[in-house]
Design goal:
Number of helices: 16
Distance between the termini: 56 Å
CATH topology of the largest domain: Rossmann fold
Oligomer: single chain
Radius of gyration: 24 Å
CATH architecture of the largest domain: 3-Layer(aba) Sandwich
CATH superfamily of the largest domain: ANL, N-terminal domain
Structural class: alpha/beta
Helix content: 25-40%
Strand content: 15-25%
Shape: globular
Strand order of the largest sheet: 2-1-10-9-11-12-13-14-15
Largest sheet: 9 strands, mixed
Length: about 575
Amino acid sequence: MNGDDAYAYTAHLDSFAADHLPPREQWPDFRFELPELQYPRHLNCGEALLDAQVERGHGTSRAVGAMVDGRPVFATYDQLLAQANRIANVLVNDLGLVPGNRVLLRAPNNPMMAACWLAVLKTGLIAVPTMPLLRAKELHQIVVKARVATVLCDAALADEISKCLDPSSEHYASGLMRVVLFNGGPSARTAHEPTLETLCAKQSTFFSNIDTSRDDVCLLAFTSGTTGEPKATMHFHRDVLAMCDTFSRHVLKPQADDLFIGTPPLAFTFGLGGMLCFPLSVGAATFLIERATPESLLELIGRSGATISFTAPTFYRQMALMLQTGKHRNATATLRKSVSAGEALPDATRQLWKNTTGIEMIDGIGGTEVMHIYISAAGSDVRRGAVGKVVPGFEAMIVDDAMQPMPHGQVGRLALKGPTGCRYLSDVRQKDYVRQGWNLPGDAFVMDADGYFFYQARTDDMIVSAGYNIAGPEVESAMLAHDAVAECGVVGVPDVVRGQLVKAFVVLKDGHVPSHELVIELQTFVKTTVAPYKYPRQIEFVDALPRTETGKLQRFRLRKKEEDSAI
């Protein structure tokens, strides 16, 4: 079995990651039953994703593209490999880094970010990608927790990380030694330092990849907890390939002639898979977008000829509404598959997209702790209202608080095992996420007798009103089916009599005006769609809903807004 204790080889000279893994008894059980999950003990996933594709004959095929001077431009696999090798040589020869050191990566989705990520893995270093919108305070937390000394940063995002270099700043991190910029000139703070491109120009396009172990950590993926203290999930080289050999291989099924496009950042494991690893794993291409709106994404799908898209439900809904008005009418002509994740997919959005484009959405639920999607369905396997079935390579069940299996049709906690799983970097929350060898992502689900999983809510988003358990996403889905509703967020708010009331925050479509009459109409509409006790007893019309960079609705901010208004 992969990852057994009998083999302790590591290429890491810096043992920080191994020293800060959780105790073995707190790890989830891992499953490697599928033949494709039998990885060799010596494994470098950067080499497997890039060098191996060139060896297979994809060298002249397009690999990574972006908009340049108003038109799509692609680098081939040969060109991407040459750039990654130059960067790898910079990391080793110029910066003196050794396997196991951490390198923080800071950039929007662009080809240079992709090359940097691959270079870090090829050199046996550990990538610490960060979301573009993070501020100095958040970056300081990450730098300190991961003990980062080196940053590779897009010049456009230099300001916030530069504060971590400045001894006069409250966010100064004494362990941070250098920030190397790319995609632009040096900042005022680092004006005397050469850019990454300048350093690369002096380096060879050949690099001898570090002979890492499949169980060497290669990625620290940070995710914020409800306390605001970030958690770092530790992923091995084999984990990166496992996400390709489970969801991508068995559900998405991409081909070498596919072109991927989408919005999730490479710092988000949903984006890392969909925007880089999945296409590279089959010799396909990816088109990277630094910043997108639903309209610009729709336009770029058409201009690039993309065949597979990855984005959040909100984008799909807004793109479908644009298509229905005649905007970008033929933009999705080449699109074959569309993947939604990062937030619950309302059935109203799924049906709207399908009716507009003819494409059955591939829904999925996954998480940073488990790397990528572990429940999903595609094509004829889709069942209306369900997220899907467990992805091959994983197993899942619904349990109660005592970890006992729940009967079919009853709401409980999702528990799962597979080839990937949660290992937090020195974090007491490891014991909350893993119990009795099972990962507990914190989602409430129902499983039917056929093995289909129906999402209810985050366990902390369940609303208990007058003794009834009400899933906010279900009420949101019902609201979104109304012609006046563009977006909707549903939370529970305190109530003396019922404990909690269901409250909906609603963004209206153009042409609709908030009114008491519309409140009554929406409440009546929901009562006729789902069980009447689930209808929103309070409705507030808002201009926008709080969302993360990845499009995920931040219900906790809606709850806080309500709490603040009650003070």
